[in-house]
Amino acid sequence: MKEFKLIETISKFFTNPTRGIGIGDDTAAIKTGYEYHLITVDTLAEDTHYRKKWKEVFPNLYRSIGWKLLAVSVSDIASMGGIPHVAVTSFTLKKDFEEKEIIELAKGLSAACRHFKVLLAGGDTVRGNCEVFSLTLTGKAEEIMTRNSAKPGDYIAVTGTCGDAAAGLQILEAGKIDTPEKRKLVEKFLFPYPSIETGEKLKLAGVKCCMDNSDGLLFTCYEIGKQSKVAVNLESEKIPISKEVKKLLGDDALKLALSGGEDFNLVFTFPESLKELFEKEKNIFIIGRIAEGSGIYIDGKPATVSSFDHFGG
Ligand code: ADP
Ligand code: MG
Question: Were 104 and a residue from 46, 62, 149, 306 both cysteine, which residue would form a disulfide, CB within 3.0 to 4.6 Å?
Fold first, then answer.
C-alpha cells in the first residue's frame, strides 16, 4: 500500500476535532477559546532521510540532522501561519551508537531551538535496530491558513527558488562537493531555514490558503487543488530556479524544480486584490492561477504529479 493511501485508510478510524483541523493539513489545529493550538510531528530515519556515508564529504552531518529535525516541523507551523512553541523528541539509537554523533545532533538541535525560539521540554531515548529521530512541535495561531481554501480566480505563488534542496541531495549522493555552488546547494538541503515571519506576514495580509512545499512544488500545488476542489494552472517560465540549479542541471533544472522536495518554502494562493502587494515582494514568485475544475496543468497541458512516496507510490 502506498503512503497516501495508507494515511487515508488510517484516518478513517478517527474523527476530526469538532473545532479545528485533524488529519490532512500541515499540522493539526485544535481551537480552544479564541486561539488554535497547533501540533505536528516529523521523523528523520537513517538510510531514508540521510546516510552515514555523507559524513565523508560533510563531516558535520549530525549537526544538520539536529537542525533539520526541528526546522522541518517549524515549516509546517509556518505554513499554518502559526508561531512555534514547545518541542519533545524521540530518539531510537542502535546499540553501538556513536556518542560524538549524538552530541553533534544536540548542538544542531539547540541552535535551531534558539533560532526558531522553541523550548525543548523533553523526549524519549530507546534502543532499536535502526537509527530514527522524531520530533513533535506545538504552536499557536489566532487564525490559520489551510490547504483547502484556494478559490477560482486566485493567483498561486511560492516564497523561494525551487529544486535547490533536491540538487543538494543529488550532490551528496554523488559524493563530491568541489565547487562553491555545490556547497551552497548541499547546505540548502542540510540546513533548511523555514520562515515563521513569512507565514505570519502572508496571514496578516489576508492569505487563507497555504502549504509548505516539503514534498515538492508540483505535489504541493496538486494537493492544494485536490483539497480546495479547484484546478491549478502553472506557467513553467514563472517557476523560480536558482542560478546554481540552472548551471548544474541545465535542461533538467525545471523538472527538478517541479518535483524536488525539501525546499521548505511556502506555496499560497491569494485574490486579485492582493496582487499589487505581492508583486512588489522580492521573494514572492507568482507562478500561476486557480480555476474552476480539477487537476494540475503546466502551460495548459495536464501534468503528471510525482513526489517521493515512502512506499513507492
Ligand atoms: P507534512 O509533509 O506536512 O509533514 P505528511 O505528508 O507527512 O505531511 O502527512 C500528510 C497528512 O497526513 C498530515 O496531515 C499528517 O498529519 C497525516 N498523517 C501522516 N501519517 C499519519 C499517521 N500515521 N497517522 C495519522 N495521520 C498521519
Ligand atoms: Mg507540510
Answer: 62
